[in-house]
Amino acid sequence: xxxxxxxxxxxxxxxxxxxxxxxxxxxxxxxxxxxxxxxxxxxxxxxxxxxxxxxxxxxxxxxxxxxxxxxxxxxxxxxxxxxxxxxxxxxxxxxxxxxxxxxxxxxxxxxxxxxxxxxxxxxxxxxxxxxxxxxxxxxxxxxxxxxxxxxxxxxxxxxxxxxxxxxxxxxxxxxxxxxxxxxxxxxxxxxxxxxxxxxxxxxxxxxxxxxxxxxxxxxxxxxxxxxxxxxxxxxxxxxxxxxxxxxxxxxxxxxxxxxxxxxxxxxxxxxxxxxxxxxxxxxxxxxxxxxxxxxxxxxxxxxxxxxxxxxxxxxxxxxxxxxxxxxxxxxxxxxxxxxxxxxxxxxxxxxxxxxxxxxxxxxxxxxxxxxxxxxxxxxxxxxxxxxxxxxxxxxxxxxxxxxxxxxxxxxxxxxxxxxxxxxxxxxxxxxxxxxxxxxxxxxxxxxxxxxxxxxxxxxxxxxxxxxxxxxxxxxxxxxxxxxxxxxxxxxxxxxxxxxxxxxxxxxxxxxxxxxxxxxxxxxxxxxxxxxxxxxxxxxxxxxxxxxxxxxxxxxxxxxxxxxxxxxxxxxxxxxxxxxxxxxxxxxxxxxxxxxxxxxxxxxxxxxxxxxxxxx
Length: 615
Fold this sequence. Notes:
By secondary structure, the protein is α+β, with helices and mostly antiparallel strands. It contains 19 helices and 21 strands. The strands form 5 sheets. Strands 3, 4, 5, 6, 7 and 8 form a 6-stranded antiparallel β-sheet that branches. A hairpin with a 5-residue loop joins β3 and β4. α1 packs parallel to α4 (105-117) and α9 (294-302) packs parallel to α10. The longest helix is centred in the N-terminal third of the chain and has 28 residues, at 39-66.
């Protein structure tokens, strides 16, 4: 209990010293996964946890008030009040909660502190030591593991049959150990894996650096069962995932994870290599990029902005700090950025800076809208970290893109409320097509209208494709069937199509074109028959489904023949948003030229000099 009290008191001290000026009394988050037992028992536990959260939250408000009070009060300090209230609530839990033994104090602490922090804003939070380790790995663009991609093979009813290796990452222990596409994972460290939940397979593969994972696999090409020993190690996970010439003169850079401490270095090298290959125009893909290291995003923006341009500014307790560009010779290639609703935080700094200065055209869906920056306070509870909002960012135009969270719960804020969320397809994109009348209006360097307080609205909106529940299930079956069929195809087990067997070593680094691994009409017909027989899909696929099936089959074959990067390029070549971005590159070039013209004073002629001399 002493540790628990100390932890909460240290958290309060951090909040007291670093409280942001926009303190809000939002709804307290209730723990939903503590303990076991009946629904009634769980709700009783939640009420107890809620009491801790509310008491801490109210005490936090009193801490805030104590900072502005002019006369002292005889009551105990807020910190001592908090400790007393928490001790009482914790004592009730220990003596009365339904489960045998003591409750999980780690979970209680984490939920209590997060409840307190979420009374401030949706982004302040606490991470335990394991989560902090993952955080630091992400900032280094790496993780500890064996470095494989996995896919679950399911039957027609959606039940897991087996987990297969689909790719190995560059320089990874798995690649060095000889794991290949189509290896069926039978055992891990003596534990049977066939038919197990894919998450459990992933958890079993995890471990500390230097430990050995012993895998028993069935090889796709030969069917032989082999034992493969892989020593877990640091695996590089570049934030610049891929960079290649997607069309003559057009470079494409994929940055769809998040910014790390090395992103700007990775990006500069990718840009250099593309220019050596003849790049004259560039598309940067930031879809799904949830943020990361803001400084890295600013450094990437600096490569395209002029010296003195505002990248962004930070509001810190009423004081402003500006981050300015210092590039005397910025990159001049026409530029398009691809975004979606998951493009957030640091990514929005890059997108917003280039939009505000008219340096790039933005294509896609409305971005997430996060302008709050957190600072990590370390060594909480033996290595935990408290991420507290200490800054609010503004873009060059003066706008902040932070969405209002004061009138919605965390679920609505992060996941949205439309039916797509129920399908597991992510956050809603209402703002992609609707512009509420009360949003503040700002202007770019050339005078184009942009909006604040709602993320970043693209210059060209491409509405996300929506599916009914029935359509979503059908697409899932199509994906399952294509994976199963591709395993047989790559192994040479599809009668009449033995030529598709992948026998040669993986040719890493291959740049895909439309001519690679073509799917003939006969092969597509064979797949449709297979999908109907084994997965219950009827034999009639519409044109869109046929196109999707062709793409998925090519993707799987590319994984087997060329590896992860080349397979991703198969999807890129069929991606409507990428295609639209490429089409808009000439317009993006004209926009940047107009902005550049405005920043340069017109050249003085001889006549103007004479007129000036006479005046």
